[in-house]
Amino acid sequence: MLAMFFWAFVVGGIICVIGQLLFDVAKLTPGHTLSLLVVAGAILDGFGLYEPLVDFAGAGATIPITSFGNSLVHGAMQDAEKHGIIGVLTGMFQVTSSGISAAIIFGFIGALIFKPKG
Question: What is the DSSP string of 44-109?
Fold first, then answer.
């Protein structure tokens, strides 16, 4: 069990280090870095490499933003098999809608509790 926590920490940390290097070394903006990490997760899932990473690292691979790209592609590919081309669009939204809704709701609650700047 301790090994599972260790590898989750290491893999999640590596993903975060990559994001930080994109900020510091490549001088990318937060929007560019976010988009690049989402696309990287989508590409890894497209080649079938992200699911083994999730199986190995657990939360270390499912918590970072790369998992959102994984979810988009995974949902699109699953529904494309069932419903054809229309499934590509509907599958993405079915899988990611709960995460997007939670982000909006908790962001709203946070704005009510704290004083947002800007």
Answer: HHHTT-HHHHHHHHTHHHHSSTHHHHHHHHHHHHHHHHHHTHHHHHHHHHHHHHHHHHHHHHHHHH
Please report, to the nearest 10 degrees, the dihedral formed by the alpha carbons of residues 109, 113, 115, 118 taken in order.
0
Contact present, 36 and 23 (Cβ < 8 Å) = no
For 49, list phi and psi in degrees, rounded to 5.
-100, -15
The CB density around residue 111, as the number of other CB atoms within 10 Å, is 10
The pLDDT of residue 106 is above 80: yes
Query: What's the mean pLDDT in 93-109?
Result: 88
Q: Which two tokens stand for residue 95?
A: 């899988």
Give the span between the Cα atoms of 9 and 42, in whole angstroms: 21
